[in-house]
Structure formats: structure tokens, C-alpha cells
Amino acid sequence: MIIKRYFLLPLFAVAAFISCKKEGNATEAEIAEPVAAKTIPPASQKYTADTLASVIEWTGSKPTGSHSGTISLHKGSIFVKNDSLESGSFILDMATITVTDPKEGKERIDLENHLKGLKEGNADHFFNIKKYPTGTFEITGIKPKDSLSLIEGNLTLKDITKNITFPARVAVMPDSVTIESDEFTINRTLWNINYSSKSVFENLGDKYINDDIKLKVKVKATRQ
User: Are strands 22-23 and 176-181 parallel, antiparallel or unpaired?
Assistant: First the structure.
């Protein structure tokens, strides 16, 4: 999957926002329909994402516990003008989904393969990386809020695009840019990640997985 041209289509009608609130220590991201991508301004400076120093941390939970892990970037670019973040786009490498629980051997591998959809009969339970090997995030807006920035962007997973807004710390330096978000949550079912969701399936008892996934984004990019 590559970055879709519909990012550049005229502004879609915006759906009602999910109100911003706290889930433990994580803010619930505002989620709306996709909007036009933020254009790259003339005379802006390009910074290229360092894929070894950039990571998305995730946590999923259920009544009996939680699992955590990471996803890496395949590539990405950030554009800066007058020492301010202007725009950017990133491709997520879904084959890099890794479980960082204190698990070893077969148990960890089985969970990673389940998330990737590599086990027979479960391809669409979570991410189905054979059909959807990448995800994308493209910045559509940046707004200051206190000491943070609110970053708005189109997140595409499994060919479904939603616009999300989350708080982050942005540092622009002569040779690098860093973006580090606070922890925030998204509702996975909005991207058709429905496995064991009690909002989608009935009679699960306590055998469900919470719809909210907790995320933390860390990106470092270097000047070109």
C-alpha cells in the first residue's frame, strides 16, 4: 500500500469529534473523517526520518491483562520552515509489529503472528500484513496548545483513513527534528480491527479485548 492520492482531495465533511478525555494517563485522540493533507510550503527544509531512532509504542488491554509492543517506520519525511514544523508524511512497516511483553519463545512468536495475521484462519483478526503491508500517517495540521503541539493527521490502516489529533512535543534544531507524543488512545474498530471487540460481537463475557489501543509516537528526522 502506498500513500493514497485521496489525501489531496478536497476537504471531506468532518464527522463529529470524539471528545478528548483521559483514559488513565492517556488522552483519547480526537477522531474525524480524513481531510486534505497540509501542503509543503515553498523554500521549506526537508528532514528524513531516522527509522532506527523512530518508533510507535502500543499497548492493548483486556480484563485479564495487557500486551505491549512496537511498530517501526519504513520511511518518512518532515518539512520545516522558519524553524517551525510545517508538514510531514510517514509509512509504517506493519511487518515490524513486535511484542515487548516479558514473554519468550513460542508464546511471543504466536502473539506476533496473530497480530500480523500470519496464522491460518486469522488473517483479518488484526492487521493482515500480507494484504496491508504498510500503514500511513500524513500531517494535516499543527496547532500550539500550552507547551505542546496538537498534531492532526490522516492515519490509514487496512485501507481505512481517519483523521486523528494528539498532543506532542516538537523540537526543531538545525540538524534534526524530534516529535514525541504524549500517550493517547484510538478506537481500533474504526479501522476494522474488530477481533474480540464487545462493541462488535455479542456474548463474549470477559473474553474480550478493549477497543482502545494506547499509542506513543517517537520520531527523529535529520536534515538533508
Answer: unpaired
Share of the chain above pLDDT 90, in %: 80
Least Cα distance to 177 among 152, 153, 149 occurs for 149
3-state secondary structure of 73: strand
pLDDT over 80 at 43, yes or no: yes
Q: In sequence order, which residues have a C-beta less than 8 Å from that of residue 16 and are 6 or more positions away?
A: 32
101-133 tens-digit pLDDT: 877 788 899 999 999 999 888 999 999 999 999
Amino acid in the structure at residue 31 = I
- Choosing among 1.10.10.60, 2.40.50.140, 2.40.128.110, 2.30.30.700, the CATH entry for 5-15+23-35+43-223 is 2.40.128.110
Beta-carbon count within 10 A of 28 CB: 18
Report the length, in residues, of the chain: 224
Q: Is 4 helix (H, G, I), strand (E, B) or coil?
A: coil
Q: Give the start-to-end residue ranges of the domains of the chain.
A: 5-15+23-35+43-223
pLDDT digits (tens, 9 = 90+) for 190-203: 999 999 999 999 99
- Rounded distance, CA 85 to CA 173, Å? 11
Alpha carbons within 13 A on the beta-carbon side of 8: 6
How is 120-150 classified by DSSP, letter by letter? TT-TTTTT-TTT--EEEEEEEEEEEETTEEE
Report the chain's terminal Cα–Cα distance, integer Å.
26
